[in-house]
Amino acid sequence: xxxxxxxxxxxxxxxxxxxxxxxxxxxxxxxxxxxxxxxxxxxxxxxxxxxxxxxxxxxxxxxxxxxxxxxxxxxxxxxxxxxxxxxxxxxxxxxxxxxxxxxxxxxxxxxxxxxxxxxxxxxxxxxxxxxxxxxxxxxxxxxxxxxxxxxxxxxxxxxxxxxxxxxxxxxxxxxxxxxxxxxxxxxxxxxxxxxxxxxxxxxxxxxxxxxxxxxxxxxxxxxxxxxxxxxxxxxxxxxxxxxxxxxxxxxxxxxxxxxxxxxxxxxxxxxxxxxxxxxxxxxxxxxxxxxxxxxxxxxxxx
Length: 302
Prior knowledge:
CATH class of the largest domain: Alpha Beta
Oligomer: single chain
Number of helices: 8
CATH architecture of the largest domain: 2-Layer Sandwich
CATH superfamily of the largest domain: Pseudouridine synthase
Protein backbone atom coordinates (compact mmCIF):
# COMPACT_ATOMS: atom_id res chain seq x y z
CA UNK A 1 0.00 0.00 0.00
CA UNK A 2 1.28 3.49 -0.85
CA UNK A 3 1.84 5.83 2.03
CA UNK A 4 -0.01 9.14 2.01
CA UNK A 5 1.78 12.00 0.32
CA UNK A 6 3.94 14.17 2.54
CA UNK A 7 2.28 17.50 3.20
CA UNK A 8 4.48 20.28 1.83
CA UNK A 9 5.39 23.01 4.33
CA UNK A 10 3.86 26.47 4.09
CA UNK A 11 5.92 29.19 2.46
CA UNK A 12 6.54 32.78 3.57
CA UNK A 13 5.22 33.97 0.24
CA UNK A 14 3.73 37.39 -0.51
CA UNK A 15 2.12 38.80 -3.64
CA UNK A 16 -1.15 39.12 -5.54
CA UNK A 17 -2.66 36.66 -8.02
CA UNK A 18 -5.45 37.87 -10.31
CA UNK A 19 -7.64 34.77 -10.33
CA UNK A 20 -10.36 34.25 -12.92
CA UNK A 21 -12.83 32.54 -10.58
CA UNK A 22 -14.95 29.84 -12.23
CA UNK A 23 -18.66 29.28 -11.84
CA UNK A 24 -19.92 26.85 -9.27
CA UNK A 25 -17.57 27.43 -6.34
CA UNK A 26 -17.54 30.00 -3.57
CA UNK A 27 -14.94 32.74 -3.36
CA UNK A 28 -13.57 31.15 -0.20
CA UNK A 29 -13.19 27.75 -1.90
CA UNK A 30 -11.32 29.44 -4.76
CA UNK A 31 -9.16 31.31 -2.27
CA UNK A 32 -8.22 28.14 -0.40
CA UNK A 33 -7.34 26.38 -3.64
CA UNK A 34 -4.98 29.18 -4.70
CA UNK A 35 -3.49 29.33 -1.21
CA UNK A 36 -2.87 25.57 -1.29
CA UNK A 37 -1.20 25.73 -4.70
CA UNK A 38 1.14 28.47 -3.52
CA UNK A 39 1.52 26.87 -0.07
CA UNK A 40 1.11 30.37 1.39
CA UNK A 41 0.78 30.77 5.15
CA UNK A 42 -2.04 33.28 4.84
CA UNK A 43 -4.31 34.55 2.10
CA UNK A 44 -7.36 36.72 1.58
CA UNK A 45 -9.58 37.75 -1.31
CA UNK A 46 -10.75 41.23 -2.15
CA UNK A 47 -14.51 41.11 -2.57
CA UNK A 48 -16.57 37.94 -2.76
CA UNK A 49 -18.25 36.61 -5.88
CA UNK A 50 -21.27 34.32 -5.51
CA UNK A 51 -20.86 30.72 -6.72
CA UNK A 52 -22.97 31.62 -9.76
CA UNK A 53 -20.71 34.58 -10.59
CA UNK A 54 -17.34 34.35 -12.29
CA UNK A 55 -14.42 36.58 -13.12
CA UNK A 56 -11.77 38.65 -11.43
CA UNK A 57 -11.03 37.74 -7.81
CA UNK A 58 -7.67 39.19 -6.72
CA UNK A 59 -6.05 36.87 -4.17
CA UNK A 60 -3.66 38.49 -1.69
CA UNK A 61 -1.00 36.17 -0.29
CA UNK A 62 1.13 36.71 2.79
CA UNK A 63 1.94 40.34 3.55
CA UNK A 64 -0.25 41.50 0.64
CA UNK A 65 -3.26 40.79 2.88
CA UNK A 66 -2.35 44.01 4.71
CA UNK A 67 -3.50 45.89 1.63
CA UNK A 68 -6.53 43.78 0.65
CA UNK A 69 -9.11 46.13 2.17
CA UNK A 70 -8.13 48.84 -0.32
CA UNK A 71 -9.48 46.61 -3.09
CA UNK A 72 -12.61 45.81 -1.08
CA UNK A 73 -13.32 49.55 -1.15
CA UNK A 74 -12.54 49.97 -4.83
CA UNK A 75 -14.64 50.44 -7.96
CA UNK A 76 -15.80 47.24 -9.69
CA UNK A 77 -16.88 46.52 -13.26
CA UNK A 78 -19.19 43.69 -14.31
CA UNK A 79 -20.85 42.24 -17.37
CA UNK A 80 -24.28 40.81 -16.66
CA UNK A 81 -27.38 39.46 -18.37
CA UNK A 82 -30.84 40.16 -16.97
CA UNK A 83 -33.53 37.70 -18.07
CA UNK A 84 -36.86 39.50 -18.21
CA UNK A 85 -40.39 38.36 -17.39
CA UNK A 86 -39.61 36.37 -14.23
CA UNK A 87 -38.29 37.13 -10.77
CA UNK A 88 -36.71 34.68 -8.33
CA UNK A 89 -36.27 34.57 -4.57
CA UNK A 90 -32.54 35.31 -4.86
CA UNK A 91 -32.50 37.63 -7.87
CA UNK A 92 -30.54 35.11 -9.93
CA UNK A 93 -30.93 31.62 -11.41
CA UNK A 94 -30.16 29.95 -8.08
CA UNK A 95 -33.47 31.03 -6.55
CA UNK A 96 -36.98 29.67 -6.91
CA UNK A 97 -39.40 31.22 -9.38
CA UNK A 98 -41.40 33.98 -7.76
CA UNK A 99 -43.32 36.41 -9.98
CA UNK A 100 -44.10 36.54 -13.69
CA UNK A 101 -45.10 39.37 -15.98
CA UNK A 102 -45.16 39.87 -19.73
CA UNK A 103 -42.21 41.74 -21.20
CA UNK A 104 -43.12 44.93 -23.06
CA UNK A 105 -41.73 45.35 -26.54
CA UNK A 106 -38.16 46.52 -26.09
CA UNK A 107 -36.41 49.18 -28.13
CA UNK A 108 -32.88 50.46 -27.76
CA UNK A 109 -34.11 53.97 -27.00
CA UNK A 110 -36.47 52.74 -24.27
CA UNK A 111 -33.76 50.66 -22.61
CA UNK A 112 -31.20 53.49 -22.74
CA UNK A 113 -33.72 55.88 -21.21
CA UNK A 114 -34.22 53.48 -18.29
CA UNK A 115 -30.50 52.89 -17.84
CA UNK A 116 -29.98 56.64 -17.59
CA UNK A 117 -32.24 56.63 -14.51
CA UNK A 118 -29.81 54.30 -12.75
CA UNK A 119 -26.61 56.15 -13.63
CA UNK A 120 -25.02 58.33 -10.95
CA UNK A 121 -25.59 58.40 -7.21
CA UNK A 122 -28.65 56.30 -6.36
CA UNK A 123 -30.24 54.47 -3.43
CA UNK A 124 -30.39 50.68 -3.32
CA UNK A 125 -32.13 48.33 -0.88
CA UNK A 126 -29.84 45.35 -0.10
CA UNK A 127 -31.30 41.90 -0.85
CA UNK A 128 -32.35 39.40 1.81
CA UNK A 129 -30.00 36.88 0.22
CA UNK A 130 -26.85 38.71 1.31
CA UNK A 131 -24.17 38.44 3.99
CA UNK A 132 -25.37 41.60 5.73
CA UNK A 133 -26.25 40.89 9.36
CA UNK A 134 -29.25 41.53 11.58
CA UNK A 135 -28.50 41.06 15.28
CA UNK A 136 -25.46 38.99 14.40
CA UNK A 137 -27.20 36.69 11.90
CA UNK A 138 -26.58 36.88 8.13
CA UNK A 139 -29.69 37.92 6.24
CA UNK A 140 -29.42 34.89 3.96
CA UNK A 141 -29.99 32.61 6.96
CA UNK A 142 -33.24 34.42 7.73
CA UNK A 143 -34.24 34.37 4.05
CA UNK A 144 -33.79 30.58 3.89
CA UNK A 145 -36.25 30.31 6.78
CA UNK A 146 -38.78 32.39 4.87
CA UNK A 147 -38.22 35.42 7.10
CA UNK A 148 -38.03 38.83 5.49
CA UNK A 149 -37.09 41.95 7.41
CA UNK A 150 -37.14 45.58 6.42
CA UNK A 151 -33.83 46.86 5.06
CA UNK A 152 -32.85 50.48 4.79
CA UNK A 153 -31.72 51.75 1.41
CA UNK A 154 -28.06 52.63 1.03
CA UNK A 155 -26.29 55.12 -1.24
CA UNK A 156 -24.28 53.61 -4.11
CA UNK A 157 -22.78 55.02 -7.27
CA UNK A 158 -23.25 53.65 -10.77
CA UNK A 159 -20.49 55.28 -12.79
CA UNK A 160 -21.50 53.82 -16.15
CA UNK A 161 -23.97 51.37 -17.69
CA UNK A 162 -23.43 50.28 -21.27
CA UNK A 163 -26.04 48.28 -23.18
CA UNK A 164 -24.10 45.47 -24.86
CA UNK A 165 -27.04 43.66 -26.45
CA UNK A 166 -30.73 42.83 -26.04
CA UNK A 167 -33.47 40.65 -27.44
CA UNK A 168 -37.16 40.13 -26.70
CA UNK A 169 -36.53 38.64 -23.24
CA UNK A 170 -33.11 39.76 -22.00
CA UNK A 171 -30.63 42.60 -21.79
CA UNK A 172 -26.85 42.34 -21.39
CA UNK A 173 -25.06 45.19 -19.66
CA UNK A 174 -21.59 46.41 -18.75
CA UNK A 175 -21.75 48.09 -15.33
CA UNK A 176 -19.08 50.10 -13.49
CA UNK A 177 -20.08 50.73 -9.88
CA UNK A 178 -19.00 51.56 -6.36
CA UNK A 179 -18.42 49.15 -3.51
CA UNK A 180 -21.58 47.84 -1.90
CA UNK A 181 -23.51 47.59 -5.17
CA UNK A 182 -25.65 44.47 -5.59
CA UNK A 183 -25.85 43.76 -9.31
CA UNK A 184 -28.73 41.34 -8.66
CA UNK A 185 -30.80 44.18 -7.18
CA UNK A 186 -29.75 46.55 -9.95
CA UNK A 187 -30.97 44.01 -12.51
CA UNK A 188 -34.30 43.60 -10.69
CA UNK A 189 -34.79 47.36 -10.44
CA UNK A 190 -33.98 47.93 -14.11
CA UNK A 191 -36.47 45.19 -15.07
CA UNK A 192 -39.18 46.88 -12.97
CA UNK A 193 -38.44 50.23 -14.64
CA UNK A 194 -38.90 48.47 -18.00
CA UNK A 195 -42.33 47.32 -16.85
CA UNK A 196 -41.65 43.71 -15.94
CA UNK A 197 -39.68 41.44 -13.58
CA UNK A 198 -36.18 40.11 -14.01
CA UNK A 199 -33.30 38.10 -12.59
CA UNK A 200 -29.65 37.59 -13.44
CA UNK A 201 -28.58 34.65 -15.56
CA UNK A 202 -24.95 35.76 -15.96
CA UNK A 203 -22.54 37.82 -13.84
CA UNK A 204 -18.87 38.21 -14.69
CA UNK A 205 -16.46 40.65 -13.02
CA UNK A 206 -13.91 42.16 -15.40
CA UNK A 207 -12.27 44.84 -13.26
CA UNK A 208 -11.47 45.50 -9.59
CA UNK A 209 -9.87 48.85 -8.82
CA UNK A 210 -6.98 49.24 -11.27
CA UNK A 211 -6.76 45.49 -11.99
CA UNK A 212 -8.20 44.01 -15.20
CA UNK A 213 -9.26 40.40 -15.63
CA UNK A 214 -6.71 38.11 -17.27
CA UNK A 215 -8.96 35.33 -18.67
CA UNK A 216 -6.20 32.68 -18.76
CA UNK A 217 -5.42 32.98 -15.01
CA UNK A 218 -7.63 30.09 -13.94
CA UNK A 219 -7.18 27.50 -11.21
CA UNK A 220 -6.58 24.86 -13.89
CA UNK A 221 -3.82 27.01 -15.40
CA UNK A 222 -2.14 27.39 -12.01
CA UNK A 223 -2.31 23.64 -11.50
CA UNK A 224 -0.50 23.05 -14.80
CA UNK A 225 2.53 25.14 -13.81
CA UNK A 226 5.68 24.48 -11.84
CA UNK A 227 6.21 26.31 -8.56
CA UNK A 228 8.67 28.69 -10.22
CA UNK A 229 6.23 29.46 -13.03
CA UNK A 230 3.41 30.10 -10.54
CA UNK A 231 5.58 32.47 -8.52
CA UNK A 232 6.37 34.44 -11.67
CA UNK A 233 2.67 35.27 -12.07
CA UNK A 234 2.46 37.05 -8.72
CA UNK A 235 2.22 40.82 -8.67
CA UNK A 236 4.28 42.66 -6.05
CA UNK A 237 3.04 42.69 -2.47
CA UNK A 238 2.14 46.38 -2.76
CA UNK A 239 0.19 45.92 -6.03
CA UNK A 240 -3.22 46.81 -4.47
CA UNK A 241 -1.86 50.27 -3.62
CA UNK A 242 0.74 50.64 -6.40
CA UNK A 243 -0.99 53.86 -7.51
CA UNK A 244 -0.17 55.60 -4.20
CA UNK A 245 2.67 58.18 -4.19
CA UNK A 246 6.09 56.78 -3.36
CA UNK A 247 8.90 58.11 -1.20
CA UNK A 248 12.30 56.81 -0.21
CA UNK A 249 12.86 56.23 3.48
CA UNK A 250 15.37 58.74 4.91
CA UNK A 251 18.92 57.44 4.79
CA UNK A 252 19.73 55.14 7.68
CA UNK A 253 16.09 55.01 8.88
CA UNK A 254 14.85 51.83 7.17
CA UNK A 255 15.29 49.65 10.25
CA UNK A 256 13.57 52.22 12.44
CA UNK A 257 10.61 52.42 10.02
CA UNK A 258 10.27 48.63 10.12
CA UNK A 259 10.04 48.87 13.92
CA UNK A 260 7.15 51.31 13.59
CA UNK A 261 9.21 54.37 14.56
CA UNK A 262 8.72 57.85 13.11
CA UNK A 263 11.39 59.81 11.25
CA UNK A 264 11.92 63.32 9.97
CA UNK A 265 11.47 63.66 6.21
CA UNK A 266 11.81 66.63 3.88
CA UNK A 267 8.55 66.15 2.01
CA UNK A 268 5.14 67.77 1.74
CA UNK A 269 2.33 66.33 3.86
CA UNK A 270 0.55 63.29 2.37
CA UNK A 271 -2.12 61.10 3.92
CA UNK A 272 -0.89 57.83 2.35
CA UNK A 273 2.46 57.05 0.75
CA UNK A 274 4.34 53.89 -0.15
CA UNK A 275 7.73 53.85 1.52
CA UNK A 276 10.69 52.23 -0.24
CA UNK A 277 14.27 51.50 0.68
CA UNK A 278 15.82 51.51 -2.81
CA UNK A 279 13.64 48.92 -4.65
CA UNK A 280 12.26 47.26 -1.51
CA UNK A 281 8.80 48.29 -0.30
CA UNK A 282 8.73 48.77 3.48
CA UNK A 283 5.05 49.61 3.85
CA UNK A 284 2.54 52.44 4.03
CA UNK A 285 2.97 55.67 5.93
CA UNK A 286 1.60 59.14 6.48
CA UNK A 287 3.68 62.30 6.14
CA UNK A 288 2.43 64.84 8.65
CA UNK A 289 2.38 68.59 8.15
CA UNK A 290 5.30 68.66 10.58
CA UNK A 291 7.31 66.62 8.06
CA UNK A 292 7.24 63.44 10.09
CA UNK A 293 7.14 60.02 8.37
CA UNK A 294 4.64 58.00 10.42
CA UNK A 295 4.45 54.23 9.69
CA UNK A 296 0.89 52.91 9.23
CA UNK A 297 1.34 49.42 7.76
CA UNK A 298 4.78 47.86 7.97
CA UNK A 299 5.67 44.90 5.77
CA UNK A 300 7.63 41.92 7.05
CA UNK A 301 9.24 40.53 3.91
CA UNK A 302 12.42 39.03 5.35
